[in-house]
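Convert to structure. Protein one:
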Amino acid sequence: MKQLLKQPVLYLALLVIGSNAGCISTREVRNAQQSPTPNPQPQTLSTIDANYITQVVQQVGPAVVRINSTRTVETSSDPLLDRFFGGQSPTTEKVQRGIGSGFITSANGLILTNAHVVEGADNVTVLLKDGRRFQGNVVGVDPVTDVAVVRIKANGLPVVKLGNSDNLLPGQWAIAIGNPLGLDNTVTQGIISATQRSIADLGVPTERVDFIQTDAAINPGNSGGPLLNAEGEVIGMNTAIVQGAQGLGFAIPINNAQRIAEQLVTKGRVDHPYIGIQMAQLSPELQAKINQSDIGFKVNQDRGVIVLGVASNSPAARAGLRPGDIIQSINGVPIENIRQVQQLVEAAKIGDRLQITVNRNGKRQAIVVRTEALPAKKPT
């Protein structure tokens, strides 16, 4: 799982054992508006069974799984030995064990989880609530959106029902089920605190993910588990927490996760459109800072999205975008914030032409950028 620090740093919600720490709806209005009875009766078994959270857990719980993963990592030797061997001292291998969550989306064994739960794993084991254990095969991972698909050899499995994350509103009920701290099938409840929480708000290195924010308790081990609405529909995939904070959990909207998962199943990978620019949201403070620096350009406005850098040999570089350009529109859509640029680029297909209008030194420039596939990150 992710976690967040002073300048929020998001931590994955995967529980890593014996190594470095790592990953881990709406209640009906008529129920919320019912006036309390003058003399409430003590809860009985029937009234407890009628509790909507209990119903959701009974309905969805069997389709929520625990995912155990192991990966072999090389550890560096003692610095003193490294000096003695001239930087070529032997390394040792250590087995890193992780615990995450997932949920079954098809009766024949497809499971959605976070990429950081299974990426690079040597072995993946899936445990069902009924005690069955299966060897998991990683169908594909997409580190950019932190979505992965795992398959197990089984049929007739319980499955979740996927909801619609596009129409969520802050204040709606939210339920999380997963394996926090290795405690299987733990249920927590809260509300949706915010939607479309951008990575720019959180300081997260992961690209192109707008999160659902929830105060339902999420802890290491919850990574990949479902965030549910009051009807028991999956509305998100629990992913991250803020270190040292309470009530700040984050989930990937299920519509985004489902779209990525479909590509992983059909192609084994996801090709993300890419143009190759580094952006910032302009403000009076940033404008003053740029204009007082010697970075080679000045800014004549304090609102909008400015290009701070252009990757070498990228589509943007070949099209002629430059640091200091202020993006005014893309394909005729006026641009006010970074999220709009990310969404418009992500919505394009590989090879599409983007008509980008920029303000360059007070003059309008029209530039056509052809998108390419996001280059794979080189292993470090």
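Protein two, convert as well:
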Amino acid sequence: MTPFLTAIFLLGLSSGATAANFSPVFEWNELDFNWPSEASRTTALKDGTFKPENIDPRFMAVHGSRIFLSLDDTYGGIPVTLGSLPTSGASSAPPKLTPFPSWDMHGKEGDCDKLERTKGLEVDSVGRLWVLDSGGDDCYAKIWTIDLNNNDHTKIIHRFPVRRLMQDLVLDETPDGTFAYISQGIEQNVVVFSLERNQSWIVKTPEIEVFSIALSPKKDQEPRQLYLSKWYSKELYSISVAALRNGAGTENPRLIGKWTADPYRMLLNNQGTMFTALLRQNYISSWNTSQPFAEQRFHEVAGLNSGLPFTFALDQSGTLWMTVFDNKKKPRYRLLKAAVSEQSLMASPDAANAAEYGVKGRKLIDSSVFFVFLLAVAIL
């Protein structure tokens, strides 16, 4: 490698994203619930309404000392699809899932005023957990809010005129109110919900079946973007949120790039780094959205065997939480965490902190460039 190329290579290492050091929190060979009684658990095992081998975490949110998980119910045997875990335990034994907000809030098929099939989760800036509920054969999909700072007060804030076609959501808090942008998994559109108006509408995305979504952070002078992944595709797209808020009937997403595999979960932090989980892959990738698209390997789990192995969330203090699911080996479930300093979008830094971050960032980059320049001169 020539001295010039060596210098450029080192500069890339100094300014690129680095992998985080994840530490284990809990491990489980089998997940279970905190049941009302042992007799109720035994009955559920016998009649097939509880099959612990089918528990599969799909979406995550974190607030304070609690982690919230949406559980997939594709294969049945899942008595509740929303549970909580503590972020730490008093004993070495891994905790059981607590049905959230309670057993009573999870209904049987056709009970439209109870939680049925929970999907995307997000906590807003005032501590409300937003829960996307895909409904069922007899019930429309809906959005719930659970006030985590007010005794977990729970209410339905909107019902959609569709059944079982909801996938993921992100929240956009603006001076004009709060909007939720929602993917339907295999539909060529984005669903938009306005909290203040209690209205929802559809913005069509021709030829793009929107599966997973992520929202860019708020930045001065930069229009906010909604990133879209296409169903069973490596392609990543973006669309302006202004078009979504305004209720435009049709919008054509812009192609950004291609991942190494099909993305099924995406997350952006408040500095613009995107984390992406990829179908049937044992690693998570990242991309600095302030730069041209370039996928980087962020975290890898050797020997992992699962179609959808990861789900993750950022908390308000800059910790990235992640579950790892393995179909074949034990422990089948792991909860990991890593300090990444960047926070969730709902905990964006204030102007003073942002300015300080900018000054420090510029000094770091300037120092890196100067170091590489001196190294190149020495090599020459």
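The longest strand covers residues 57-63. The first helix runs from residue 3 to 15.
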